[in-house]
Automatic annotation (TrEMBL):
Transmembrane segments: none annotated. It holds the Pfam family Amidohydro_2. This is Amidohydrolase. Residues 10-335 form the Amidohydrolase-related domain. It comes from Streptomyces durocortorensis. Signal peptide: none annotated.
Amino acid sequence: MNTDPACPTVDVHAHLLLPEVEALVADAPALAEARALDARRNGPQAIAVNGPMIASRIGRLTDVDTRIAAMNSQGVDVQVVSPSPSHYHYWADRQTATKVFETANEATAAHCAGAPERLRGLGLVPLQHPDLCADALEHALGRGLLGVEISSHAPGRELSDAAYEPLWERAEQTGAVIFLHPFGCTLDARLDQWYLSNTVGQPVENAVALSHLIFSGVLDRHPELKIVAAHGGGYLPTYIGRSDHAWSTRSDAGASCAHLPSSYLRRIWFDSLVHDPHVLRELVRVAGPDRVLLGSDFPFDMGREDPVAALHSARLPESQFHAVRGANAAALLRLT
């Protein structure tokens, strides 16, 4: 574990809006259906709040100079910038999906090129078309991006699906980062009030997706895969004992992964965005102080305006504080 107090402060969870992508899909007939599903999942009150919230943050989401000024005020040296998950568009046909990931990768790379010492980027892959994903990853890496951002599932397909094996294999071979960031929750209208779609739905989706990767044996087959889980991995890390009990007790639960589920937490990286200092300390304990990375969800309202202060509030030992603040990310991302 690198505990150098002189290491840069690295925020691995920051977002970018890409008007180029939305222009591509604006006339697609399936877009209206996807937006209607999103509206049902979130509910009218959340939709009414989301629009003004995003509008007030457009500068930080699109303009490099505005982003850098905000980073300076936060004391953040490097951001890992990923497209807003609203750009996944997993409804898209093959032709449209190819245009989406190519445009997203190129636009993200161009944004980061505006401040190359401060910004690193992640691209997109079309999870709804598994056979395109490895090529999409290569496209992202070819534009100088560190890897790609994915959701917790695609329609009708979980991350444990064998069709994703070429993606995991290529990511492992190249050392690419896979940033697991859910968008939408399949509990649907049960969470359509009080912003439960996000506050409950996102942690649920994180936990389900990580469980699929663990219990299916993906992490056994690809032990060097670099998975970074947003939102501290959701509910899984702090309730992993139940998974261990099932694996130890039931033949069906333990059929496909070789080790206790909790042991895989030390093969995954997690951002620090858990909104509670006690939960953050527990995440560091169960995953290891070398597996937690600073994350803010910049600049959305469910993020932290001052991620370093949030990290301070956990009162970690100094060596662990500096590891989470930036040294772990610098090692993972091979920053110099």
